[in-house]
Specification:
Layout: H1 2-33, E1 37-41, H2 48-64, E2 68-72, H3 79-87, E3 94-99, H4 100-109, H5 117-120, E4 121-129, E5 132-137, H6 145-155, E6 159-164, H7 170-182, E7 185-190, H8 194-202, E8 208-212, H9 213-221, E9 225-230, E10 258-264, H10 269-283, H11 286-294, E11 298-302, H12 304-325
Parallel strand pairs: 1-2, 1-3, 6-7, 6-8
Antiparallel strand pairs: 3-10, 4-10, 4-11, 5-8, 5-9
Helix pairs in contact: 1-10, 2-10, 4-12
């Protein structure tokens, strides 16, 4: 009886050691293969997400020992990139760097997105949060949110158009919330990403836009655009004078959107762990953290489990908001 239990214990230990060895071998083999890691980005070059991906990829290649190549698959609010991730082999060589829209929002507002975030992808790690903000163009005299509303009412007969980076996105829902709350006729104008939206705002082709802090912060600093409201429970560190939508009387806008990395379902856990460890080391680098913070991100590494929980909670929160709005899937 004693020998039987001892034998079972030894067999269990050998099994555990074999599994650990296999896991280590998988990670080592990936590193030694030299196969580049494709980091898909669902938005065009020059946009905020692209700049973030390129900053991280440059450091990740040193940590991982293989090239990390940013591949822009722009269009449809990240839908094209997500479809490409689903179609990619689950071998650890293709990942998606995305914010909340593609993963949490898009599947709720598009009837046939071509992927299911919950079953086709696995979270790898989270690395930042950010705020969506309302900004007015240089051709608009308003310097505050209240001045913008007054300008719309008195100079535009209560009508205006606010640009958003993608259709059926959180910025578009914010436009509807502003229009409904103040009983104005404000419509959203969807763009293919924040880069063309910003270009039209700089050219005074559109009076206002809603996108992320990283999309607008440099032009705000230069005085070419003016950020007048942000989402979140508290004011942004880079924008201490700008009120939150919560301060302005809007409800349920405290949760900040996320940035993170996703892999196709079935990707080896060793590959996921290896990438997550590398990302954590990169985020700890002062120069990386400073650059991301300067872009308007709140940097903070989240492990696979932590990030999966955050994505799930955030998705459920916006599901309630979208359903309450009466929005019908496109």
């Amino acid at each position: 009886m004693v020998f039987s239990r001892r034998g079972a214990l030894l067999r269990g230990m050998r099994g555990a050691l074999a599994l650990a060895a296999l896991t280590a071998f998988t990670g080592l083999a990936q590193a030694q293969s030299g196969t580049p890691i494709r980091l898909l980005v669902g938005f065009p070059a020059g946009a905020g997400t692209d700049a973030i991906a390129r900053l991280l990829s440059e450091k990740l290649k040193d940590e991982l020992g293989v090239p990390v190549v940013v591949e822009n698959r722009a269009g449809a609010g990240g839908q094209i990139a997500a479809q490409a991730l689903k179609a990619a082999p689950a071998d650890g060589h293709t990942l998606l760097l995305s914010h909340d829209h593609t993963i949490s929002i898009l599947p709720q507002v598009v009837k046939n997105p071509g992927f299911n975030s919950a079953t086709d992808f696995v979270p790898v790690a989270g690395f930042a949060s950010f705020a969506n903000v309302l900004a007015v163009s240089g051709g608009t005299p308003a310097k505050t949110f209240d001045e913008y509303l007054k300008w719309v009412k008195t100079q535009r007969a209560g009508k205006d158009t606010i640009g958003v980076p993608a259709p059926a996105s959180i910025p578009e829902f914010l436009v509807k919330m502003i229009s409904d709350k103040y009983k104005l006729d404000i419509q959203s104008a969807p763009y293919r990403g924040s880069a063309p939206l910003t270009a039209d705002m700089l050219g005074n082709q559109i009076s206002a836009g809603i996108a992320s802090v990283p999309d607008f912060i440099e032009n705000h600093r230069a005085g070419k655009l003016r950020i007048v409201a942000t989402i979140g429970a508290r004011r942004q560190a880079l924008l201490p004078q700008v009120p939150t939508f919560t301060e302005l009387g809007f409800a349920n806008l405290d949760d900040l959107p996320y940035y993170g990395v996703f892999a196709p379902v079935g990707t080896p856990q060793a590959s996921i762990d290896r990438f997550g460890t590398a990302l954590q080391k990169v985020l700890a680098m002062p120069e990386v953290r400073d650059k991301l913070t300067n872009m308007g991100l709140t940097v903070g590494y989240e492990s696979q489990g932590q990030f999966a929980g955050r994505v799930r909670t955030y998705t459920q929160a916006w599901e309630r908001i979208i359903q309450a709005s009466g929005f019908k899937a496109l």
